[in-house]
Design goal:
The complex is a heterodimer of chains A (85) and B (149). Chain A has 85 residues and is α+β, with helices and mostly antiparallel strands. Chain A has a domain of 50 residues. Chain A is built from three helices and seven strands, in the order βαββααββββ. With 149 residues, chain B is of the alpha+beta class. Chain B has a single domain, classed as Molybdopterin biosynthesis MoaE subunit (Aldehyde Oxidoreductase, domain 3, Alpha-Beta Complex). Chain B contains three helices and eight strands. A four-stranded mixed β-sheet of chain B has the order 1-5-7-2. Chain B is elongated. Classes of the chains: A alpha+beta (85), B alpha+beta (149). Chains A and B meet through strand 5 and strand 7 of A and strand 4, helix 3 and strand 8 of B.
Chain lengths: 85, 149
């Protein structure tokens, strides 16, 4: 049974992390996107400023912010400001 | 499907084929192309585009629905490149068919502006050394002005 979430990074978030995705252990309940990302930002300080302007996706849907809950098996996307066109 | 993400060169005629509608008297196209930029003895060779495929098509379809509802457009087709796009090549094509030109222009403008703000697509520069005669420093443009159009 899964006990981790997968966090996917794009653009400047990926550059800050040096990886396109990481898996992170989370408790069975009660964790949030913010908690997961705060832990990663402590290990990767360049990620912290990127997170301030980012939007977050959980399992293919946008969430309101870092307080959104996550559970084992979830996939989180970190979206820095967009620049298509 | 009227919204696409493509890793192949974009075709304007293909977009046009999706816009056939006898009640539409106006068709507007927007083509965004990669343009050359020079700075510090370098110049743009290409842009690399990436997206989050988990959400990008849903986001584009939402914009399409808004353009149909808010501006009276009758057909919309939108396609964006991913991967490496060379200078001069199209990175995005938007086509709108509507009964009247004002509707079509407004809808096309809405679509490109919202795409840049609300759709998970990112670009990054791929630089090449400028030829000796072109190595003058130019003022870097702000990020928001980097894109075509």
């Amino acid at each position: 049974m899964k006990s981790s979430v997968r966090v996917r990074f794009f653009a400047t978030a990926r550059e800050a992390m040096g990886a396109a995705s990481v898996d992170r252990e989370v408790p069975a309940s009660g964790s949030t996107i913010g908690a997961v990302l705060s832990g990663l930002a402590e290990e990767h300080p360049r990620l912290k400023p990127v997170l301030k302007g980012s939007r977050f996706v959980r399992n293919g849907r946008y969430v309101g912010g870092p307080r959104a809950r996550v559970a084992p098996g979830d996939e989180i996307g970190v979206h820095p400001p967009y620049s298509g066109g | 499907m009227t919204c696409e993400i493509s890793s192949r060169p974009l075709s304007l005629s293909r977009v046009e084929r999706h816009l056939g509608d006898p009640a539409s008297g106006a068709v507007v196209f927007f083509i965004g192309r990669v343009r050359r930029e020079s700075a510090g003895g370098r110049r743009t060779a290409a842009l690399d585009y990436e997206t989050d495929r988990a959400v990008v098509l849903a986001r584009l379809r939402d914009l399409e629905r808004q353009a149909l509802r808010r501006f009276g457009a009758r057909r919309v087709f939108l396609v964006h490149r991913v991967g490496r796009v060379r200078v001069g090549d199209a990175s995005v094509i938007i086509g709108v068919a509507a009964p009247h030109r004002a509707m079509a222009f407004r809808a096309a403008r809405f679509l490109i502006e919202e795409l840049k703000r609300e759709v998970p697509i990112w670009k990054s520069d791929r630089w090449a050394r400028a030829p000796a005669g072109h190595r003058r420093r130019t003022r870097p443009r702000p990020r928001g002005a980097r894109s075509p159009g």
